[in-house]
Amino acid sequence: MGEQPIFSTRAHVFQIDPNTKKNWVPTSKHAVTVSYFYDSTRNVYRIISLDGSKAIINSTITPNMTFTKTSQKFGQWADSRANTVYGLGFSSEHHLSKFAEKFQEFKEAARLAKEKSQEKMELTSTPSQLVSENSLLQWHQQYYPPQHPCLINFLTSFQKVVRARNQTTSSLSFNPNLLFALTLFSTSSSRSSLLILVVLLHVNKAICFCCHFH
């Protein structure tokens, strides 16, 4: 469906003077249509207003925004992304109140959409895919007791390198299949194999470790 208007009204549009941060500067010569839009694909709510072909309001609603009634017919909200404060002058108190109600409604919807998105991200990061670098060695020792001492040295070096790179997160993406591969190498009868382990971190960086088995 894409982005569709879900509520419209008419108002005079203003923006705060960027120099004084006090005075209002009119951005429309007359009352224009001000609409709430909803993008079902991205779960995003926006306030949009056009004066002819010029967009005079393009404001994405976020959970931390607040619409404030400053008089019976005037209201305002700050948009940090646009680095401005928008003001709307309505023809009646009823129109102002209706716009304020919708602002609060869509603000709450934006908050719920954000929380749902965060929960979905957490669910996709299962414990088997997230291994703390501090417990990587203990985890492998518990489930796959190594047969070769070089494997212990390898995993210990892995921990040291990750800490040296100042990773800011407590967990990193780690494919359990790689641990299984380590087990196969550690129990292998081959004495002259070269193991190259590529660990893809969550920041889309890669670290390559080489370990010789003698």
Automatic annotation (TrEMBL):
Q: Record's Gene Ontology CC terms?
A: cytoplasm; postsynaptic density
State its location(s): Cytoplasm; Postsynaptic density
The cross-references to Pfam families, in alphabetical order and at most eight, read: WH1
CDD domains from the UniProt entry:
EVH1_Homer_Vesl (cd01206)
Query: This protein's superkingdom?
Result: Eukaryota
Q: Which Gene3D superfamilies match?
A: Pleckstrin-homology domain (PH domain)/Phosphotyrosine-binding domain (PTB) (2.30.29.30)
Keyword field contains Lipid metabolism: no
The entry lists its GO molecular-function terms as: G protein-coupled glutamate receptor binding
Q: Which family does it belong to?
A: Belongs to the Homer family.
Protein name as annotated: Homer scaffold protein 1
What is the originating organism of this protein? Bos indicus x Bos taurus
